[in-house]
Amino acid sequence: MPLRDIIGQSVAVRSLLGTLKSGRLGHAFLFIGPAGVGKRTSALAFAQAVNCAAPMDDADACGVCPSCRRVERGVDIDARVYSPTRQGYRKEEAKEIRNDAHMTPNAGKRRFLILDDADAMGAEAANALLKVIEEPPEMSVFVLLTEKADRIMPTIKSRVLSVPFRPLTPAEAAAVAGERLSGGQVDYLFPIARGNMGEILRLSEDRKLKELFEDVEAELFERLLKEASASPTRLAEEVAALAGRIDLSTAEDTESTARRKSVAAILEIMMSMVERKHMTVDAGAGKMKRGCDILETLMSTIQTVRGGGLTESALEAMAINLKAKAGAA
Question: Crossing angle for the helix pair 207-215 and 183-193, nearest 10 degrees?
């Protein structure tokens, strides 16, 4: 995929194309932004442009030459992506990357070494790579990808060009998904995956999530939010019950962490529905005010839950808050 086809990252794309047109290609880059917004895809598109046999007038890749097609298929050894082990990048992986950096490009002008989750690099690994990142072989380019720039060692950050990536909007996520997903699927998956396109595509295969979304809309939003003033306890119990039907945990998560992820996902779905049903252009002042009150309460509850607060207490406080605001409306 050429840089021109990257969706939602115009600032990053302009920065990379500007670098290419200047003719002064840097030796190391740091792509910073949330997960699933196109950092890895953009790094490969950047490599594609640099090694393209017939670049466009704006220095972007043609997308059809043999080099571009190899990158597109993920078989170009001049554009290699590295991922950390469960223990992160260890000294052994760092040595392998360092050795690869000294290899002559196979067919392209430059050899790209793309490090996914570069923040998972311990001190030993970072120190092992520092010298080669500081003074890399002339034909090698490092691209470090991270969500957490504050975890990148300052000595490495000072030697790379940072490129910012922003979160995608639901409309941009739908455009990225294209024909793979319907707009309705993106609607219910976007808040659960928090805009992470890789996660959206992975979760789209789970039929139970679609059923859950429909139940949240039918059982929770339509009925319980409107009746919150009459039965706040019921609202809290219903959110907890629906959260029990979703599992977004990873192997590293504790039971309480997994529970917080599930509850936060339900609340994110509720926020998405409030925005669509209450925050429309033609919504009256009263409906808009009610929507703002609900969103404020939901956002506060999500922050509490994700911050490690007790989910049951947070949901009860949320329900009581909604009751109070409904009574004051």
Answer: 90
Q: List domains and CATH numbers for the chain.
A: 3-164 (3.40.50.300), 206-328 (no CATH)
The answer to whether 287 and 308 are in contact (CB under 8 A) is no
What tens digit of pLDDT does each residue of 233-265 get?
A: 777 888 888 888 777 777 778 888 888 888 888
List CB contacts of 233: < 8 A, sequence separation 6 or more: 316, 319
**111 sits in which H/E element:** strand 111-115
Global confidence as pTM:
0.74
161 Cβ partners below 8 Å, 6+ apart? 19, 26, 28, 29, 30
B/e letters for 126-143, b = 16+ CB within 10 Å, e = fewer, are: bebbbebbeebeebbbbb
Give every CB contact of residue 290 below 8 A, 6+ residues apart in sequence: 278, 325, 326, 329
Q: How many CA atoms lie within 13 A of 319 on its CB side?
A: 22
In whole angstroms, give the CA distance from residue 105 to residue 283: 59
Reported as a single tens digit per residue, the pLDDT across 125-175 is 888 888 888 888 889 999 999 998 888 888 888 889 999 999 888 889 889
> CA 128, CA 115: separation in Å to the nearest integer?
14
Count CB neighbours of 70 within 10 A: 19
Half-sphere exposure of residue 195: CA atoms within 13 angstroms, side-chain side:
15
User: In terms of DSSP bridges, do strands 28-32 and 140-146 run parallel, antiparallel, or are they unpaired?
Assistant: parallel
Q: How far apart are CA 231 and CA 314, in angstroms?
A: 16
Residue 245: CA count within 13 A, CB half-sphere = 16
